[in-house]
């Protein structure tokens, strides 16, 4: 049976709870004529007046005024967990696409090579770079530093980072990823989820202890069992449902929506009305937690 | 054009509008998920889709890289079914190339280009149905798409066309009025600071009447701005309400 929907039908009901927010600005709006404030992101100074340059909500921290747009490309910060794809192997470095404003760089000196942390990097390693990571590989990494032009320098010097093997990737808006102490979660349903700050979410089957310690260079390419695949697919659809409804993504929200979705078939979760139902059941549970 | 009366004795135009009246504008932000920003606009029967990707690393030829500011890359194309007669080439013909260049110039002036050195912003504009004022609708759609993408701009860019018929300036001309051989003035402005970023004139217009026509076009741009501004505000409110942010 084929299920076909008309695209425009869903947006109608959203209109009801639209009310104007007080400190909302559009590009060119004057935020303040007071010269005592500092110019932050999303603003510019002209004729002694502070104007907004993006559409969004004004945020004030003491003397600093910023305007935060709802949707924007990923803006890296030191310590962020990101998921990226290798697009180029260069001189002692890899170029990584992290869906940021510029390509990120992963230096050969900031990866853990197989065979221990204290290994010296020889010329041999430089020639072997493509054997470790080649174009098209997915990696998880941490932002080590941000260059002056906004490009990111990554590192994978911990065994939890490194090459990603088998799993599924979902792209959501970076603003939906809640900043937490940890972005790696092993969920009780038998899957591991990495919520990258750049909006990339990686879901894979939970691996056993010993394979986890290799930093991902030895990829486990054994077929994933059907049960695991179903859990992964269900999680993926739940993450999509949460992002469709602009809900923050973190371990609890993903887990709750997963639990709420268990009543439905995996493929049915993507139907708009079932999506709404799952989210409506998840929301009060999250609110009762006080998060 | 002989025979067609563009402005009736009662002061109405062929589609029933008053001389300074705009066509109905309907617009929507965020029509595509994959793009960083997107918008759809209808101005009367002219329908335009715009998508924005970026800022991102320069793809293709690295020679275009600018060290101090962002490269604005535009592509204007008209769907083959957009005009009365089926178009052979949707993009790449002289007219589209010129339009592409004009769009690039317009948005180079409005986007705060110095914020993203060494990167690129792509603006793709597709005319789905053409009924005059293609450039204006394209600019308005691209502005909305850029705002949706969260790209910093000095102001909205609003564009509107105007013409001059029987000693009367008329605003936002449609295809019939455009092709009647009268003068056509296209203006793109930054409505809040009253700056003109783009001005083009086709066919002849007496110097004495020029200021009248420009004034009407600039005023119409402000009317367009009111509509666009309201759309953006509604869109942002709706989204940030569902985000559940505290205000």
Write the layout of secondary structure elements.
The complex is a heterodimer of chains A (291) and B (247).
Chain A: E1 24-25, E2 30-32, E3 38-39, E4 43-46, E5 49-52, E6 56-61, E7 64-69, E8 81-89, E9 93-97, E10 104-111, H1 123-127, H2 129-132, E11 138-146, E12 152-156, E13 162-163, E14 168-171, E15 184-187, E16 191-195, E17 200-205, H3 209-212, H4 226-244, H5 251-261, H6 272-289
Parallel strand pairs in A: 3-7, 10-12
Antiparallel strand pairs in A: 1-6, 2-5, 4-5, 6-7, 8-9, 8-11, 9-10, 11-12, 11-13, 14-17, 15-16, 16-17
Chain B: E1 25-29, E2 37-43, E3 46-57, E4 71-78, H1 94-110, E5 119-129, H2 134-148, E6 158-165, E7 168-171, H3 175-178, E8 184-190, E9 195-202, H4 207-243
Please tag this protein with its features.
heterodimer, A: 291 residues, alpha+beta, five-stranded mixed barrel, four-stranded mixed sheet, 29% strand, flat, B: 247 residues, five-stranded mixed sheet, four-stranded antiparallel sheet, 4 helices, globular, KH_dom_type_1 (chain A), phosphoprotein (chain A), S1_RRP4 (chain A)
> Total number of β-strand segments of chain A?
17
Rounded to the nearest angstrom, the radius of gyration of chain A is 22 Å
**Beta-strand share of residues of chain B:** 25-35%
Number of helices of chain A: 6
Please give the count of helices of chain B: 4
How many individual β-strands of chain B? 9
Terminal-residue CA separation of chain A: 41 Å
Tell me the major beta sheet of chain A: 5 strands, mixed, barrel
Low-confidence region ranges of chain A: none
The helix-and-strand class of chain A reads alpha+beta
Poorly predicted sequence stretches spanning 5 or more consecutive residues of chain B: none
Largest sheet of chain B: 5 strands, mixed
General form of chain B? globular
Helical content band of chain B = 25-40%
């Amino acid at each position: 049976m084929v299920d076909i929907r008309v695209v425009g039908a869903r947006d109608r009901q959203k209109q009801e709870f639209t009310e104007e927010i007080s400190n909302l600005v559009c590009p060119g709006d004057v935020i303040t004529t007071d010269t005592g404030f500092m110019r932050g992101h999303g603003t510019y100074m002209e004729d002694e007046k502070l104007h907004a340059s993006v559409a969004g909500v004004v945020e004030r921290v003491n003397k600093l005024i910023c305007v935060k747009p709802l949707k924007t490309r990923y803006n890296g910060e030191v310590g962020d967990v990101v998921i990226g794809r290798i697009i180029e192997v260069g001189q002692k470095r890899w170029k990584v696409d992290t869906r940021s404003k510029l390509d990120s760089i992963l230096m050969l000196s900031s990866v853990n090579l197989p065979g221990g942390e204290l290994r010296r990097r020889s010329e041999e390693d430089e020639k072997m770079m493509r054997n470790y990571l080649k174009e098209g590989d997915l990696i998880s990494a941490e932002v080590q530093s941000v260059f002056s032009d906004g490009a990111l320098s990554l590192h994978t010097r911990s065994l939890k980072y490194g090459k990603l093997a088998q799993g599924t990737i979902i792209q959501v808006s970076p603003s939906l990823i809640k900043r937490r102490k940890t972005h790696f979660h092993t969920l009780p349903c038998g899957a591991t989820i990495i919520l990258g700050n750049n909006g990339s979410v990686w879901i894979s089957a939970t691996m056993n202890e010993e394979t986890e310690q290799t930093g991902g260079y030895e990829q486990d390419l054994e077929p994933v069992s059907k049960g695991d695949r179903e859990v992964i697919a269900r999680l993926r659809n739940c993450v999509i449902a949460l992002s469709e409804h602009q809900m923050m993504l973190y371990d609890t929200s993903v887990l709750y929506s997963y639990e709420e979705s268990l009543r439905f078939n995996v493929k049915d979760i993507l139907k708009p009305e079932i999506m709404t139902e799952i989210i409506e059941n998840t929301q009060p549970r999250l609110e009762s937690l006080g998060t | 054009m002989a025979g067609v009366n563009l402005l009736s004795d009662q002061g109405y135009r062929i589609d029933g509008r008053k001389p300074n009246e705009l066509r109905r504008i309907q617009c929507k932000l965020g029509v595509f998920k994959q793009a960083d920003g997107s918008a759809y606009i209808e101005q009367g029967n002219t329908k335009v889709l715009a998508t924005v990707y970026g800022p991102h690393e320069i793809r293709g030829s690295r020679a275009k890289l600018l060290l101090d500011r962002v490269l604005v890359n535009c592509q204007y194309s008209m769907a083959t079914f957009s005009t009365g007669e089926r178009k052979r080439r949707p993009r790449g013909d002289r007219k589209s190339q010129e339009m592409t260049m004009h769009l690039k110039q317009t948005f180079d002036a409005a986007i705060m280009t110095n914020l993203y050195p060494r990167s690129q912003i792509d603006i793709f504009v597709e005319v789905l149905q053409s009924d005059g004022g293609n450039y204006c609708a394209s600019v308005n759609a691209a502005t909305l798409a850029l705002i949706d993408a969260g790209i910093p701009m000095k102001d909205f860019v609003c564009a509107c066309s105007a013409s001059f018929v029987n000693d009367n300036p008329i605003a936002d001309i449609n295809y019939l009025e455009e092709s009647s051989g009268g003068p056509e003035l296209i203006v793109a402005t930054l409505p809040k600071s009253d700056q003109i970023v783009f001005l083009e004139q086709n066919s002849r217009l007496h110097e004495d009447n020029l200021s009248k026509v420009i004034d009407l076009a600039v005023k119409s741009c402000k009317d367009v701005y009111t509509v666009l501004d309201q759309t953006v505000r509604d869109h942002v409110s709706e989204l940030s309400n569902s985000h559940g942010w505290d205000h």
